[in-house]
Amino acid sequence: MLTVTVDVGGLERKLDLMIDISTDLTPALRRIGGYLKAETKRRFAEQNFAPLAASTLANRASKGIRALDRKLQRDYGKAKKRAWDGARASGNVPRGLIARALARLSGAAVAQAAGVAQTRGVRNRLAVLETFRATHFKGTTSAKLTEKQNASLTARTQRAVEKAVGGAILGKLDR
């Protein structure tokens, strides 16, 4: 128990404060914390911040382009893997360490690899990747794609940039 004595004009008053009341602050802090968390979430939901600078928007658009480039590269790698898996399953690629070594020595592996790499899925994904890189990283245009592929690539690029630029200003802080 804590006792505070105050002398006011000859009158003496004692204020007794119990320490055990002030020792358990968990309920009070929980209420304050809940209020602050709710206010923070509300503020982030409102997004009443200053607009982003043009350089920040350009950086975000650049990140969207790079993310799509990585996705197209993954798609190309997956297509190559599927082609090799299909060739292996059909017996067109030598199995076993010794068979592969002999095929490499004879040059047959190069011809087989060229045949596997020329499947339509691999060719299409490689053309999309090369066109995308030529357009966005080299500044040139490429006419390797069909009209439908070109429209699809344009739409994918637009979605990737919109996703990167259109995100919340501080949307990831309240997680």
What do these coordinates show?
The protein has 175 residues and is mainly α. The protein contains seven helices and two strands; from the N terminus they run E-E-H-H-H-H-H-H-H. The protein has a two-stranded antiparallel sheet with strand order 1-2. Strand 1 (2-8) and strand 2 (11-17) form a beta hairpin. Helix 3 crosses helix 7. The radius of gyration is 33 Å and the shape is elongated. The chain starts with a strand and ends in a 10-residue tail after the last helix. The model has no long low-confidence stretch (mean pLDDT 78).
Key phrases:
175 residues; mainly alpha; two-stranded antiparallel sheet; 8% strand
Q: What's the topology here?
A:
Layout: E1 2-8, E2 11-17, H1 19-23, H2 26-46, H3 54-90, H4 97-106, H5 108-117, H6 120-138, H7 147-165
Helix pairs in contact: 3-6, 3-7
